Amino acid sequence: MTTAEIDVKGHVFNVEGRRTVEPGWLIFYDSYGRSSDSGMPPFKDGETLRVIEIKSEEKFEAPPGRYNQSSLLDKMEREGIGTKATRAEIISTLAAREYVSGQELVPTDLGISVIEVLKLHAPSIVSTETTRTLESGLESVETGAQDQKRLLRDAIGVASDQLASIESDDDAVGLGLNTVVAESKPGGYELGPCPVCKTGRLHVVKSRKSGKRFVGCTNYSAGCRASAPLPQRGTLRVGGTCKHCSWPVVYIRKGRFPWRLCVNPSCPSKGEKRREVRAV
User: Fold this and answer.
1) What is the DSSP letter of 185?
2) Is residue 269 part of a domain?
3) DSSP β-bridge partners for residue 4
4) Longest distance between any two alpha carbons in the chain, whole Å
5) Can you give the residue range of the structural domain that contains 156?
6) Domain tally for the chain?
7) Contact status, residue 132 vs residue 138, Cβ threshold 8 Å
8) Residue 72: pLDDT band by 50, 70, 90 thresholds?
9) What are phi and psi of 238, to 5 degrees?
10) Are residues 198 and 173 in the same domain?
């Protein structure tokens, strides 16, 4: 390995190069691996270099990777959540209840929304600190360092306080969770009357073949072919009727703020926006 420091008007740049001197046994793996050599011309101390080209690149820090089952198990162990016997079951429950999906355990809209509702009305239930304290208490009981009756009283106290908080806002909690469940089950989510056949109702349908959601009419079996595409990510909320085409308007929340969308791809307002963009 060769390293060099290059001084450019007081700014020091480091450069590093690698070269295999004796390949040894690596010659047998030449077609199966990739060489780590990185060429660098020979330098001499005090040598003056000629600037051939200057490049300016803008780079951003990459976001952290998603948790998979292995990394989440490690995280749970560090945070003191669960035990060796229960951590894998906890992750399986998250997937079974559709709070996460995929190998990288991407949080679903349902999982995010449930956490938001519980954080608002019963924050201790979803608190890592509460779970850590209870797990630590259980370990103390197992080793005989703490009385099990005292731990039980403390756990009941925490649960009672949170249940009382939920009960005091049971209407708001019920409405919030009911909305979340309805939005996460696209097959039964209704948007409004069908502007094509006038007698059916437009609702969100999930394709059995592709798994994608779209808008369809309840009179499909009777011949109505009213349909429209939908964004595949984000929770939906009905936002009334479009004044331009009478199709439903929905609010789609993918981040912190929702955005408004007329589901009709042929809505005249969308044509006006496209013409404005072309004019600009």
Assistant:
1) -
2) yes
3) 15
4) 86
5) 111-130+138-182
6) 4
7) no
8) very high
9) -65, 135
10) no
